[in-house]
Every structure is written in structure tokens, then in C-alpha cells.
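Hi there,

I know you've been waiting on this one. I reran it after we fixed the sequence typo, so this is the corrected version. Both the input and the resulting structure follow.
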Amino acid sequence: MNINDLEDKALWLRQELWEMAMRQKKGHIPSSYSCADIVTALYYGGVLNYKAGDPDYADRDRVIVSKGHAAMVLYPVLADLGYFPADELKRFTEPGGLLGMYADFRIPGIEGISGSLGHGLGMGAGFALAARQDGHDYRTFVILGDGECYEGSIWESAMFSAHHKLDNLVAIVDRNELCILGRTEDLVALGDLEDKWRSFGWNAISIDGHDFAEIGDAFAKLDKLDGRPLAIIANTVKGKGVSFMEGRSEWHNRMPSDEQMNTARGELGLAAVQGGEA
């Protein structure tokens, strides 16, 4: 896909996520929207090796959304790849449905449970080391929240990965500078994350996480790594695509009013609805 196609696909993803969440009045929309362009580039931008319709393809690249509250960002994509029926999107969080608020192994295409923050990078490092030991050339991509980088387990896994020279591992930090309590730099400052990851023995690059040209350039470096894993610091806007949610921590897990719902639908290119019903 070219950049215009990727932008259209990212809009489709945001639309699908909106309908999912509004139908049940559940979900973490802003956290999903900040990494939606990254996910779009991974799956539709020629980055990942996978087979549509076959979630168990042995040489597939692995993707872990470690910021587990945003795991729903993968659901429309996995349905689009034919991993499960698209009708399951309509049953998001319903009893008996396949798709929960937090992802689990019942869902085809989900590689790791990540409701508890800080564990995705460790899982990813395990996948990367196993690939090397088993003679496979698949890569593992782990999407981290910047607030999640408060967790000590992230940095333990970073040291482990650098020590084992896991250049088949990519950490993508969704750097929206917000977590549920407010701005990350006001709570516990993370500082220069690019420099921090380099100090742990990683390659590191900072990009605009909503610019598909920059995202593509970052992923183009995957074939030029020098025995070190890669950290991509993706500077993003939490709630990207819905004006009243953008850059506002209070929308972390909050649902809009009927009026706000239709404002958002207009901004996302969706038709207005009566009474806020999706």
C-alpha cells in the first residue's frame, strides 16, 4: 500500500474501533488510537510476514501489544485477515464472545496476554531468542506504552535482549506522554527515551508515530541492524483522530455523551446516529 492507502486503512481501523467500543460502551479508545497508525503500517505496509487465514503459520512475525488496555486495536485487523469471523467484533466484551477487553490466547492471532503491564517485552525477548535457537527468521514486535516504561521488568528485559544480541526484536514505544493519572513527565519523568534505550545497548530512533513516511523509514532499518535490538520511540497523540480526546488523560477509559459521540463520528467520517446508539 502507498501512504494514501495506509491513511485510508488507519481511518478504517479507527472507525471499526469506535463502533466496537460505542456498541458496548466499553474500551480504551484514546490508547488504541495513538498506536493505530503503527499497527496499520505493521500489518498493511509490507512490514510483517504473515499468512491471511492462518494465524498459526510457523514463520509468522509475532506482534505483542504490551499496553494491554489497547489490545482491542488488533481485533479489527485480525478479523480482516480472516483469523476469526468479523461478527465477533459486534460481540466485543459480551459474555460468551471471543473478544474481551484484554486479549487472551483464545483469540487467533494474539501472541501474549498483556493485561498486567510490563510483561510484553519479556515475552517478546523469549520469542526472539527461541526463533534464533530454533533456526527461524521471524521477528517479534512489541508495542509498549510510555507509562508502561515505569515498570522495572521492561528494563530487565531490555538488558537481557541486548546481552543476547536479539536483533530480531523491535520495541515500539507509544510515546503519547500520557497515562491514566496525567502527563508522564509530571508524574515520574522518563526523559529522553531514545537516549535511555541506547544506554541499555539498543539501537534507537525517534519518529512521528502518525507519519507513515517516517514509520516506513524506521521499519526499513530492520535489515540493517548490527546485532542489537531496535527501539522505535513513536511520538504520538493519545486519542488521535477525535478532537476532544486528543492529548487528554481524563479520556483514558471514559465514554462520551451522545453529543460528543456524534461529534466524533463526524470527525471519523461516520454517519451521525440518533440517541447516541451505534
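Quick highlight: The mean pLDDT is 96.

Best,
R. S.
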